[in-house]
Amino acid sequence: MDDQYMYARYARQISLPEMGIAGQDKLLASSVLICGCGGLGSPAAFYTAAMGVGCIGLVDNDVVSRSNLNRQLLYTPADVGKSKVACAAARLRQFNPHISVNAYPLYIDATNIGPVVKDYDIIIDCLDNLDSRLLLNDACVTEKKPFIHAGVAHLSGQVMTVIPGQSACLRCLLPVSQKKDAPTRGVIGAAAGVIGSLQALAVYKYLLSLATDQGQYVLFDGWNNRLQHLELQADPGCFCQK
Ligand SMILES: [Zn+2]
């Protein structure tokens, strides 16, 4: 593909002082794995594809259901009943033909996610249950891969950047994570949009080696439009610090 044609779509970010053509080339040479292609995965996938992360992997074992459509912008009514990763991969390829997209129709378990995680620069945790999140956490820590955890419910959510060996992982704060993984899964799509977008922004900062958010637990309160962050300490006894 003609370079000038390709770079034109990124002109408004290439003009940023921290980016330039070199930064764009860095994004195009990078890879991100998005685990969970739902309410958080949709904005995270669209914005990482939009900024030109060159290779995007999508993990999800679910099919699209009608009740997904209030927040999962990757899908349309015509996708109901079809594989999420297949539909999402097709949508992203259409959205940005300059990047490659890999689909993994996996239900995450203790053995299948490590080999996938290994092939990517950074991972985004857009999952919706604690068991899968911990399996992903463990795979990322074992493979020493950074990941951006997030969760959303109702109008609010949280985001956390984990760099194994440097900052706290989910197991360091298990009581907090458990509290956040409430059984009520009702959510307003726009809240998932805010949180998934914060994840994509964290990926941008990490890939360009700008200030990273590691060690911060960012809380978004959509009722009062408040964004707070707590500084987290890693548990020195946790396996993520070995
Ligand atoms: Zn830990």
Report on the structure:
Helix content is 36%, strand content 19%. It is an alpha/beta fold. The protein has a single domain (3-153, 184-213), classed as NAD(P)-binding Rossmann-like Domain (Rossmann fold, 3-Layer(aba) Sandwich), CATH 3.40.50. Helix 4 (41-51) links the parallel strand 1 (31-35) and strand 2 (55-59). Helix 4 packs across helix 9. The chain is globular. The site of zinc ion has 8 residues, from loops.
Keywords:
242 residues; alpha/beta; Rossmann fold; 8-stranded mixed beta sheet; 9 helices; 36% helix; binds zinc ion
Contiguous low-pLDDT stretches (5 residues minimum) are none
Give the overall shape: globular
Oligomer: single chain
Output the helix-strand order.
HHHEHEHEHEHEEHHEE
Q: Are any ligands bound, and if so which?
A: zinc ion
Instruction: Please give the alpha-carbon distance between the first and last residues.
Output: 45 Å
Helix-strand layout with pairing:
Blueprint: H1 3-8, H2 11-14, H3 20-28, E1 31-35, H4 41-51, E2 55-59, H5 84-95, E3 100-104, H6 114-117, E4 122-125, H7 130-143, E5 147-153, E6 156-162, H8 174-180, H9 189-207, E7 216-221, E8 226-231
Parallel strand pairs: 1-2, 1-4, 2-3, 4-5
Antiparallel strand pairs: 5-6, 6-7, 7-8
Helix pairs in contact: 4-9
